[in-house]
Write a structure and sequence with these properties.
single chain; 350 residues; alpha+beta; BirA Bifunctional Protein, domain 2; 7-stranded mixed beta sheet; elongated; binds 3,4-dihydroxyphenylalanine
């Protein structure tokens, strides 16, 4: 038996020497420790032995099994270590290389405009309020003095959901809401930036665009207050040298109504293709809140007066960033958005 064991040990030593991979090691395990392996074979004639001899052989074979297992485990550990070393050598990190730039997103030009508008009006004591994009016909039109069948509806081609609900065509709907919701009928000073929807689709009109609505209701509010507010607003958005011009106009929810033009910031008013040689660009609709609108909102027009205004946000973004097509603002093409790098913000015309 001893001879058998010695020759097996010798064979094992040789096998270990000739084993160079995990795969070969796996074969070696089967050869020695498998069900029909050499270590198991040592006890194959157990049945023919006496109890004493069996005990002896059992002990011996267990010792051998432990020894063989240890040797093979050592070999396995050695291979693992070698593999790790190889990997580490391959994966060396050169800490002297410049690090990879982290790609940061940037604020959408539309949101930059909204934030500027909000900053300005909050500094003047206005609240920023929100309203739903899915709106009732009542809030979007009727409470703004545009009853069913009124011709002013034609100018706002609309997405109706049913006869009662539509995607709002103007943020003016939030005027109606704010007046109704203000149960105590206290003064109102609010702006509402948001999205509106109309059936439009060309370079200067998109089916979706942004507006900001403003509403002030108080006692003794006058057109002069409106004028002063909008003049300051135009200067904040388009530059200190901006001039403002008011023209009479018509909106069903204001009386009198005005259209507001700003001096062309590109040519300074001399005339250029942007302002169609007129020196002026139309940016805003406004006026004194119509008595009917006040009444429907629960405000007595003999006591309260107010002004309102509404302006497109996209045009400001298009002016400021020279964006040629309004639809770029809504298609979210990464090649467009990437151009609004954060560091540009410091250089913006404000
Ligand atoms: N809602 C109007 C539009 O979409 C803009 C507007 C004009 C809003 C006059 C006003 C206003 O609040 O007083 O064309």
């Amino acid at each position: 038996m001893n001879e058998k064991i010695n020759s097996m040990k010798e064979e094992l030593a040789k096998d270990i020497e000739n084993t160079h991979s995990m795969k070969e090691l796996a074969d070696l395990k089967v050869k020695y420790l498998g069900k029909k392996g050499l270590v198991t074979e040592l006890t194959s004639n157990m049945k023919e032995l006496s109890i004493e001899e069996r005990k002896e052989l059992g002990k011996l074979s267990n010792e051998i099994r432990t020894q063989v297992t240890d040797s093979l485990n050592q070999l396995e550990a050695k291979f693992q270590e070698e593999e790790l070393q190889k990997k580490l050598e391959k994966d060396t990190i050169d800490i002297s290389l410049p690090s990879e730039k982290i790609k940061r997103g940037s604020r959408h030009p539309f949101n930059r405009i909204i934030e500027d508008v909000e900053d300005f009006f909050v500094s003047m004591g206005y609240d920023v309020v929100d309203g739903p994009e899915l709106e009732t016909d009542e809030n979007c039109f009727q409470r703004l003095n545009v009853p069913l069948g009124h011709p002013a509806r034609d100018a706002q081609d609309t997405f109706y959901i049913d006869t009662e609900y539509l995607l709002r065509t103007q943020t003016s709907s939030v005027q109606a809401r704010t007046m109704q919701e203000n149960q105590d009928k206290t003064p109102i000073r609010m702006i509402c930036p948001g999205k509106v929807y109309r059936r439009d689709d060309d370079a200067t009109h998109s089916h979706q665009f942004g507006q900001v609505e403003g509403l002030v209701i108080d006692k003794n509010v006058s057109l002069a207050d409106l004028k002063g507010t909008l003049e300051l607003f135009a200067k904040k958005m388009l530059g200190e040298n901006t001039k403002v011009r008011f023209r009479p106009s018509f909106f069903p929810f204001t009386e009198p109504s005005v259209e507001v033009d700003v001096s062309c910031f590109k040519c300074g008013g001399k005339g250029c293709p942007l302002c169609k040689q007129t020196g002026w660009i139309e940016v805003l609709g406004a006026g004194m809140v119509h008595p009917n609108v006040l009444r429907m909102g629960g405000y007595d027009p003999d006591i309260w007066t107010g002004f309102a205004f509404g302006t497109g946000l996209d045009r400001f973004a298009m002016f400021r960033y020279a964006i040629p097509d309004i639809r770029y603002l809504y298609t979210n093409d990464i090649r467009f958005l990437e151009q609004f790098d954060r560091k540009d913000e410091e250089n913006e015309i404000k």
